[in-house]
Design a protein that fits this description.
Blueprint (H helix, E strand, L loop, with lengths): L2 H23 L8 H8 L3 H4 L1 H13 L3 H8 L1 H21 L3 H28 L9 H26 L4 H4 L1 H15 L13 H21 L8 H23 L7 H5 L1 H31 L4 H6 L2 H14 L8 H19 L9 H27 L6 H39 L13 H34 L14
Helix pairs in contact: 1-7, 1-8, 1-10, 4-7, 4-11, 4-19, 5-6, 6-7, 6-10, 8-16, 11-12, 11-19, 14-18, 14-19, 14-20, 16-18, 17-18, 17-20, 19-20
Subcellular location: Cell membrane
Protein name: DHA2 family efflux MFS transporter permease subunit
Membrane topology: Multi-pass membrane protein
């Protein structure tokens, strides 16, 4: 390569890494400003959960087909189209004046993000010499994590000092720069013939997971199985997963190779990676609203309180890359699960009277645990796997983290609203003239109801932290079933 080619490769790699950061940072960007968004759009609490699940579920749909789209229609064309759709989603989000319009914009962002993430990595890898590519994966993952953990702080600061809409404008000039670099420097690549893809397997798996997602998202609002929509979503989920399992067991060639399911380390690690995703974003989806809406912290402070968790997570992840090779990775997995579970246990001691210290400490401990757990699970998962299955396994492994996150957010949001109502009814039932001197004026009664609602919401949040603790404890025995990692052949 001459000097000009090296410069062009670096420019492309920087652009691809910039997109990787932008698509990950936009996922949690509204997290610290939910109160402002809800007030501006008259959005109910259960609808606020769709801000995250729409983005995640949409990206989970398009992520598996990104490589097929690039091979079929051209990498450059597909990448430019995804950038355009991402920008459109950002702009529509700033123009939204109803909850449905805003969630639709987030859905479009997620669809584009699912394509941009794997193709950005492919572009970046293509600009590197072959000998440097194996070491690039952890760096790329660290950048994704940095985007996820820095999003609330950036969004909260912008929302507090300006408004919540400008937080989406921040990405527009950066994506315009990337589009220009890609247009000028990226050489179009397209397969000689359209590659095969198991659309039936992919479609049934997606139907099952999205049906389950909609069931969890809409169930509480529609009184569960008292409405036809929930029955339809439950049937779609059950049918999709049933057809997918039958397809895997009977078809010779399908979306997921049977060899993946025969590797014990890979399957157990994937289950634990799903649980990690369940905790990773669900904690954020609970902590920021707790600080912002229940405890009354301003958006910028709410965002800043997530920074220690992010620093610990990314720092531990990077340091794990320097861990001695002779240490059994299963030890790190056990250590990571123990730290995450311990932090979630500490979260059960939160109080409405606490200051910022408990949130910072527990977040920092959990971040260390997650930062240790992620690379250790990746090492064990692929250590005994057939090398020919690694590309397919990588896609499934990362997809399970995404599905874990989207289902985790849906589950905690569902139980949060249900438990809030139950606790409100339980607390209010004790407010009788025989137990306390109740106020009689309307403003005083409204204030009392507001106090009871806050207490009920806080108790409900503690219940959801317990769910996250249980999720880690349930998968912890799987560590004992893992085989000792061996160097991959």
């Amino acid at each position: 390569m001459n000097a000009l080619q090296i410069a062009d490769a670096r420019s492309l790699r920087f652009a691809a890494l910039l997109v990787t950061y932008l698509q990950s940072v936009n996922l949690p960007l509204p997290n610290a400003a939910l109160r402002l968004i809800q007030g501006s759009l008259s959005m109910t609490d259960d609808q606020a959960g769709w801000i995250f699940t729409a983005y995640l579920a949409a990206s989970a749909i398009t992520m598996p087909v990104a490589q097929w789209l690039a091979a079929s229609f051209g990498l450059k064309r597909v990448y430019q189209t995804a950038l355009g759709l991402f920008v459109l989603g950002l702009w529509l989000g700033t123009q939204a004046d109803t909850p449905l319009a805003f969630v639709g914009a987030r859905l479009l962002q997620g669809l584009a993000s699912g394509v941009l993430a794997p193709l950005s990595m492919a572009i970046a890898l293509d600009t590197l010499p072959a000998e440097k590519r194996p070491a690039f994966g952890p760096k790329w993952t660290a950048l994704v994590l940095f985007g996820i953990v820095s999003g609330p702080a950036i969004g909260g600061w912008i929302a507090e000092h300006f408004d919540w809409r400008p937080m989406f404008y921040l990405s527009l000039p950066l994506i315009a720069y990337v589009f220009m670099v890609v247009t000028l420097l990226l050489v179009e690549k397209k397969a000689g013939q359209r590659p095969s893809f198991d659309f039936f397997g992919f479609g049934t798996f997606t139907l099952g997971m999205i049906g389950l997602q909609m069931l969890l998202d809409r169930g509480e609002r529609l009184d569960w199985f008292d409405t036809p929509e929930i029955w339809v979503e439950a049937f779609a989920s059950a049918l999709g997963l049933y057809l997918f399992v039958v397809h895997v067991l009977t078809a010779r060639v399908h979306y997921l190779s049977k060899g993946l399911f025969r590797d014990r380390n890979f399957m157990l690690s994937t289950v634990m990676f799903f649980a990690l995703g369940f905790v990773l974003l669900s904690t954020m989806a609970l902590t920021s609203p707790m600080l912002d809406e229940i405890l009354g912290y301003p958006p910028d402070t709410t965002g800043l309180l997530t920074v220690p968790r992010g620093i610990a997570l990314v720092g531990a992840f990077v340091l794990m890359g320097r861990a001695p090779a002779w240490i059994d990775a299963r030890v790190f997995i056990a250590m990571g699960i123990a730290l995450v579970a311990y932090a979630n246990g500490l979260m059960l001691g939160y109080s409405p009277l606490m200051d910022w210290v408990p949130v910072t400490v527990t977040g920092f401990i959990q971040g260390i645990g997650l930062g240790i757990l992620m690379p250790a699970l990746s090492k064990v998962a692929f250590s005994t796997l057939d090398p020919t299955l690694r590309p397919e396994a990588t896609g499934l492994f990362n997809l399970m983290r995404v599905y874990g996150s989207t289902l985790g957010v849906a589950v905690v949001q569902t139980f949060f609203f249900n438990n809030t109502q139950a606790m409100h009814a339980a607390l209010a039932s004790n407010l009788t003239p025989y137990r306390a001197a109740l106020p009689t004026s309307l403003p005083a009664l409204e204030g009392l109801n507001h106090l009871v609602t806050h207490q009920a919401a806080f108790i409900a949040v503690m219940g959801q932290f317990k769910i996250l603790l249980v999720a880690m404890l349930v998968v912890s025995p799987l560590v004992l079933l893992l085989r000792k990692p061996v160097p991959a052949i």
